[in-house]
Amino acid sequence: MTDMTLNIVGGGLAGSEAAWQAAEAGCRVVLHEMRPAVGTFAHRTGDFAEMVCSNSFRSDDDEQNAVGLLHWEMRAAGGLIMEMAARHRLPAGGALAVDRDAFSAAITERLRAHPRIETVAAEIKELPRDGHWIIATGPLTSGALAEAIRAETGAEALAFFDAIAPIVYADTIDMSVAWEQSRYDKGETEAEQRAYINCPMTRDDYEAFVDALLAADKTEFHEGETAGYFDGCLPIEVMAERGRETLRHGPMKPRGLTNAHAPEVKPHAVVQLRRDNALGTLYNIVGFQTKMKYGAQAEVFRMIPGLSEAKFARLGGIHRNTFLNSPTLLDEQMRLKSRPNIRFAGQITGVEGYVESAAMGLLAARLSVAEITGRSLPPVPPTTATGALVTHITGGADAKTFQPMNVNFGLFPPVSGLKSGRRGRTDRYRAYTDRAKVDWQAWLAATAAAPVPA
């Protein structure tokens, strides 16, 4: 008799979504998560789908933004991550941000209550030779399992370093200096239009802040390690090293903001903080991932106007992230070529971001269920956000220069007959999303199947 069990290693966003998708399709799922028995540098709990960096899933615009389109595709596929994000959403302008603790607690409860999901708190240290497996251990794959992957593939797993932004207690922010406003007043409700706390800087403030960033004590790397940062998650001091104006055109840009305390004065730079929990007691400093040492962080960040008395619920940090050279190692079904009973999903495959990771978990589960039940699914259309991502990691990217990638319209096949350049961008993006929605719904309909036999 065919084994109808799917084993999933890793209870992050990709593993959680994969477990849900497979169980809802009728498979028996065993979800292996080493936490809390074995902890990591970045995690605080043993809950599933814990968000360790930002609490944002980024833009929720499914007409003009590729990540918003990915949200839409996951919702259309019955995704657990998007369902729970909606239930625990926080005001964040046009972004989808969540109360991270309530979000992960709710996902943990749903998964543990599912009659077809068994959860096991244990570390998997070897690549299994038998059965159906998805490895979704993320960028913090344990040393033992990472070594097993390297031994099997004969290739070094690539590495980059990821930094975590600090979180501030809201009642320690000086609101006589700071003000509430989303950039360009984005959002349909007043709460969304006031979702961010903004700290203004004069030119002198900014120059002194950049000097302090550059002079601060930083985390040192071990011998043999290199700082191959993913550009979408650069430490703030690394951005400062690229030029004194870099931060003003990045996370500290003042555009779209008006100082409520002095509307006639245009800030030279603005530091934004985004709500991190439903109570509004915690705020994270947007784009302020850092590798500064703890003592230096507190000193430098208190130079920001409005944060002179700030107390930190969590300071920033840096950790080593690993990912596969997927175009070389994985086939078009996300299977390890040398061990096709194993699929990889999530950030370890070289997608970057919470949503992208969860989407690859969703797809890996659907491919696994089809294989377990003896069906063959048509390829995911590359015109969709999900299809563009999986195409990129399983062959669309150049293996020699492969790096972690967020979903973006540059991964999509062009739509013919549209105007190029910035002026044609609105129509072009709408054409991408309209086409993707039609193609994704058609793929979902074509891949629908009867439940797996008990």
TrEMBL record:
GO terms for biological process: tRNA methylation; tRNA wobble uridine modification. Its cofactor is FAD. GO terms for molecular function: flavin adenine dinucleotide binding; tRNA (uracil(54)-C5)-methyltransferase activity, 5,10-methylenetetrahydrofolate-dependent. It is found in: Cytoplasm. FAD binds at G10, G11, G12, L13, A14, G15. Residues 6-374 form the MnmG N-terminal domain. It is an enzyme of class 2 (transferase). Pfam families: GIDA. Its EC number is 2.1.1.74. GO terms for cellular component: cytosol. It catalyses: uridine(54) in tRNA + (6R)-5,10-methylene-5,6,7,8-tetrahydrofolate + NADPH + H(+) = 5-methyluridine(54) in tRNA + (6S)-5,6,7,8-tetrahydrofolate + NADP(+); uridine(54) in tRNA + (6R)-5,10-methylene-5,6,7,8-tetrahydrofolate + NADH + H(+) = 5-methyluridine(54) in tRNA + (6S)-5,6,7,8-tetrahydrofolate + NAD(+). Keywords: Cytoplasm, FAD, Flavoprotein, Methyltransferase, NAD, NADP, Transferase, tRNA processing. Catalyzes the folate-dependent formation of 5-methyl-uridine at position 54 (M-5-U54) in all tRNAs. Belongs to the MnmG family. TrmFO subfamily. This is Methylenetetrahydrofolate--tRNA-(uracil-5-)-methyltransferase TrmFO. The gene is trmFO.
